[in-house]
């Protein structure tokens, strides 16, 4: 069985679509189906539950998918190490990031890195904060990016940015014409926030508690774009990093208000697996991020 079959099967599982897996590998949809049957025949096991309308793996399929990720990772690592013997920075660099950091912070680093190392293929996966740590620990991502980074015994974290937090409101809100505001003025206001378990929500609630300010949590979401949309339709206020709302403010979709007297910050960190020997492409990307 050819090595490429593992990649095609992996793409099929991740995209949950035969047509999308075919497109990603430059082959026909029927070729993807044929290669799936070849893998099933090789292992004498059904990998996809065809009795379900939605794409779903069997228990055997889950096992082969999990192990195929390790096979692909080792193959990429081998390619990188061979290339590094010739001082060539290439291969695949897999990044995992929370949505807000991945959308508004990381792209500038990716652009700069690709300009310097065009032979490196970069994959960026958007995950929850917990999933970013898991991806780094399980070696499905080379590097992770999170807000409010936290160390543990399995990962190393380096904070590389402190980003200003601002108050955001809709154009019809009573604060809409304000340029600055005291945090105490948020007393009793409706707040749109991230889900309770997220570091971003916990951090915002901590700074409000420190200022002895009580708010009403009107709505909670798992990504920053939904929060911005809720604020835009005047469902409440939000405290967000300035980079994530600057464009919307320039288009007058949202109003951006800076806090008076106290500058509140969101820390952003890069996460790597502790003790892991990082390929040269990963080291150079981290150096770019930390030093920029």
Question: Which key features would you list for this structure?
Answer:
292 residues; alpha/beta; Arc Repressor Mutant, subunit A; D-Maltodextrin-Binding Protein, domain 2; eight-stranded mixed beta sheet
Would you summarize the structure shown here?
The chain has 292 residues and is of the alpha/beta class. Helices cover 44% and strands 22% of the residues. Strands 1, 2, 3, 4, 5, 8, 9 and 10 form an eight-stranded mixed sheet that branches. The chain has a two-stranded parallel sheet with strand order 6-7.
Task: Describe, in plain words, how this protein is organized in 3D.
With 292 residues, this protein is an alpha/beta fold. Among the domains are: 71 residues, Orthogonal Bundle (Arc Repressor Mutant, subunit A); 106 residues, 3-Layer(aba) Sandwich (D-Maltodextrin-Binding Protein, domain 2), CATH 3.40.190.10. 44% of the residues lie in helices and 22% in strands. It has eleven helices and ten strands. Strands 1, 2, 3, 4, 5, 8, 9 and 10 form an eight-stranded mixed beta sheet that branches. The longest helix is centred in the first third of the chain and has 27 residues. The radius of gyration is 23 Å and the shape is globular. It starts with a helix and ends with a helix.
């Amino acid at each position: 069985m050819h090595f490429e079959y593992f990649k095609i099967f992996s793409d099929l599982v991740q995209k949950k679509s035969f047509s999308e897996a075919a497109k990603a590998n430059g082959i026909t949809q029927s070729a993807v189906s044929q290669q799936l049957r070849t893998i099933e025949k090789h292992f004498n096991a059904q990998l996809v539950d065809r009795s379900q309308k939605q794409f779903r793996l069997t228990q055997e399929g889950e096992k082969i998918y999990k192990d195929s990720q390790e096979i692909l990772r080792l193959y990429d690592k081998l390619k990188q190490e061979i290339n590094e013997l010739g001082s060539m920075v290439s291969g695949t660099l897999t990044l995992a990031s929370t949505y807000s950091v991945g959308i508004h912070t990381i792209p500038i680093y990716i652009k700069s890195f690709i300009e310097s190392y065009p032979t490196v293929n970069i994959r960026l996966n958007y995950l929850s904060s917990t999933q970013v740590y898991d991806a780094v620990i399980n070696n499905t991502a080379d590097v992770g990016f999170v807000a409010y980074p936290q160390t543990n015994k399995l990962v190393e974290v380096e904070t590389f940015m402190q980003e200003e937090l601002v108050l955001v409101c809709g154009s019809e809100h009573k604060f809409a014409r304000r340029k600055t505001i005291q945090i105490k003025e948020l007393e009793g206001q409706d707040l749109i926030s991230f889900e309770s378990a997220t570091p971003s929500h916990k951090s915002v609630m901590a700074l409000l508690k420190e200022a002895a300010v009580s708010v009403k949590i009107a709505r909670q979401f798992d990504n920053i774009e939904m929060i911005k949309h809720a604020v835009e339709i005047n469902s409440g206020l939000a405290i967000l990093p300035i980079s994530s709302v600057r464009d919307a403010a320039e288009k007058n979709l949202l109003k951006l208000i800076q806090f008076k007297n106290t500058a509140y910050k969101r820390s952003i960190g890069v996460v790597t697996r502790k003790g892991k020997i990082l390929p040269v492409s990963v080291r150079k990307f981290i150096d770019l991020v930390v030093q920029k």
